[in-house]
Inverse folding.
């Protein structure tokens, strides 16, 4: 019968250092997402809803 081969990588993910690194990555991603949402809200309140959506649509159309 075939047995699964354990790897060092699988064991490293369960180590305390792996969990700390994962928590740091998730924290940084969450912080980045919150900054993007705050920037979008700031633009929305500064320029108004119509200008905000016009800027977004112009940016999207510039990509294509």
């Amino acid at each position: 019968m075939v047995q699964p081969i354990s790897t060092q990588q699988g064991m490293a993910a369960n180590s305390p250092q792996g969990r700390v690194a994962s928590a740091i990555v998730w924290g940084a991603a969450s912080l980045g997402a919150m900054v993007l949402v705050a920037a979008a809200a700031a633009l929305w309140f500064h320029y108004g809803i119509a200008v905000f959506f016009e800027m977004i649509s112009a940016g999207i159309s510039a990509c294509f």
Notes: The chain has a mean pLDDT of 82. The chain has three helices and no strands. Residues 16-47 form the longest helix (32 residues). The radius of gyration is 22 Å.
